[in-house]
Amino acid sequence: MPEQLTPIDIIWTKDSQAIELNDRTKYKSDYKIVGNTIIYTLRIASVSSQDDGQYACEGKNLPRSAQMVHVNA
């Protein structure tokens, strides 16, 4: 029987500062399981040029993944 994937607690950062995910009007963190991979996503509502920066996702035993985001407002 295949091993069941279990999502882990992750931290989202912008420019190395933790993002306050309790503000669900601005940010929404989610995940989906595709095959043997867990894909974590961060959605940003009402984006502006102030949202430009390097966003990263990291967690225990999870390699840091980062992406530079530039908003054309």
UniProtKB/TrEMBL annotation:
Protein's name according to its UniProt entry: Ig-like domain-containing protein
Lineage of producing organism: Eukaryota, Metazoa, Ecdysozoa, Nematoda, Chromadorea
Domain of life: Eukaryota
Organism: Acrobeloides nanus
All copies of domain Ig-like, residue ranges: 1-69
SUPFAM superfamilies: Immunoglobulin
InterPro entries for the chain: Ig-like_dom, Ig-like_dom_sf, Ig-like_fold, Ig_I-set
